[in-house]
Write a structure and sequence with these properties.
Elements (H helix, E strand, L loop, with lengths): L1 E5 L4 H4 L9 H15 L3 E6 L8 E3 L2 E5 L12 H16 L3 E5 L3 H13 L2 E5 L16 H12 L3 E4 L2 H11 L4 E2 L24 E5 L8 H10 L4 E5 L5 H15 L4 E5 L6 H6 L3 E4 L8 H8 L4 E3 L6 H4 L3 E3 L3 H13 L1 H18 L2 H23 L2
Parallel strand pairs: 1-2, 1-5, 2-4, 5-6, 6-7, 7-8, 9-10, 9-12, 10-11, 12-13, 13-14
Antiparallel strand pairs: 3-4
Helix pairs in contact: 2-14, 4-5, 7-12
Length: about 375
């Protein structure tokens, strides 16, 4: 199979996360690209020009670069050089199936090129907001129009949760396949079963891009309510708007003796970060299926969260689902007061991860979806 993954910001993730923006989508793309390449498929990834050579190969994955993110004149660069360089890179990759993750105008651009060139296009949602008919995270009409075009012209749509699948069905009358997201967690030898901190300080983690929807300010309020608990905060703002939002919140966090600010944590340092924790906390207003959840569960960490994908946390008892600061505090206190409940939850979340989110188990399902889409195209074409 010849597969091309379109991910403008993925170069940093492909090279280990030392440069550029590295979010959940980028980590998933890097993981997917390298897995498919290791299985013998011909894989390419399209990214912004980050200074890499024109013909760059990493771990068997060929990287084709578009223009740099800052290239061109504002107002005109949407077409040139951004769209034109995307089209050039799409042609260079010469794939059978093109995959793009996350709702944006690029979804429509890739779908349009695939329609013209008679190539398959697969799209995957990255957040609940990608599935809301009003598309609240997209502020420009142009972006909504392009995205809707991409949705309706995708040969395969993949969603992260049953909720997202139902939202697409209700709002767009589109069918999709629910696939869990993969996570390269510790194997049986690497795994260290967490131990409850009897007579010691409980450590709670929070790690995300610092932006409005992640609501770090809620965690600060939780920390103020739980002065005997240590909160380990990882993450940084990734834009000027994000920095303006983050500055006063980080200042408030820095003033608290029970909050440690780690800034952006390198990918290779994440395992040691999780190993020092006892719980993980999420304060987001909305998400898709956060990579941090999978990483935390792979390390045996229960989650206390205001976001609960498909109600898994509540129904499968993978932590405590919350609605506000008060219930976040109550959720953490529940585990402080009930060490045995914490221990059983820790065992349960590790088992959930092993049964649902290991890399090979998940990626084989993605491979099946892609191969079935190609087979349908070949049958239709009489090949």
């Amino acid at each position: 199979m010849k597969l091309c993954l379109v991910a403008h910001f993925a170069f940093g993730a492909l090279t280990g996360g030392a440069i550029g923006h590295v979010g959940g989508v980028e980590r998933q793309i890097s993981l997917m690209a390298k897995w498919f390449a290791a299985k013998g498929h011909r894989v390419s990834v399209l990214t912004w020009d980050e200074g890499q050579p024109a013909d760059y190969i990493i771990d068997g994955v060929r990287v084709f670069k578009m223009c740099s993110r800052s290239a061109g004149v504002p107002g005109v660069r949407f077409f040139y050089p951004r769209w034109t360089s995307l089209n050039r890179a799409l042609a260079q990759s010469d794939a059978e199936i093109y995959y793009q993750n996350c709702g944006e105008y690029v979804t429509g651009q890739v779908a349009f090129w695939c329609q013209r060139k008679k190539r398959l296009f697969a799209y995957s949602t990255a957040s609940d907001t990608d599935c809301e008919v009003a598309l609240p995270a997209m502020r420009k009409i142009r972006e909504k129009l392009f995205y809707r075009y991409g949705l309706y012209h995708a040969d395969a749509i993949i969603t992260q949760t049953k909720k997202q699948q139902q939202m697409l069905r209700n709002g767009f009358r589109l069918e999709s396949t629910v696939l869990p997201m993969p996570c390269p967690g510790p194997d049986v030898i690497q795994f260290q079963q967490p131990v409850f901190p009897q007579n010691k300080t409980l450590h709670v983690g929070w790690a995300a891009r610092i932006s409005k929807e992640k609501r770090l300010e809620l965690l600060i309020q939780v920390a103020q309510a739980l002065p005997d608990v240590m909160f380990e905060v990882g993450g940084a703002a990734t834009s000027k708007v994000g920095e303006d939002y983050a500055q006063p919140i980080l200042a408030a966090a820095a003033s608290l003796p029970n909050v440690t600010l780690h800034g952006r944590i390198a990918r290779e340092d994440m395992p040691s970060y999780y190993n020092k924790l006892h719980l993980f906390c999420c304060t987001s207003a909305y998400e898709g299926f956060p990579n941090t959840f999978l990483e935390a569960w792979s390390h045996g960490l229960p989650i206390v969260s205001t976001f609960d994908p498909d109600d898994l946390i509540a129904e499968l008892e993978l932590g405590k689902a919350a609605a506000d600061v008060t219930s976040l505090v109550d959720g953490i206190r529940h585990f402080i007061k009930n060490p045995e409940a914490w221990k059983m939850t820790s065992i349960r979340v590790r088992e959930y991860y092993l049964h649902n989110h290991t890399v090979d188990g998940v990626m084989e399902r993605f491979e099946r979806v892609f191969m079935e889409a190609l087979q349908r195209r070949r049958v239709k074409a009489g090949i």
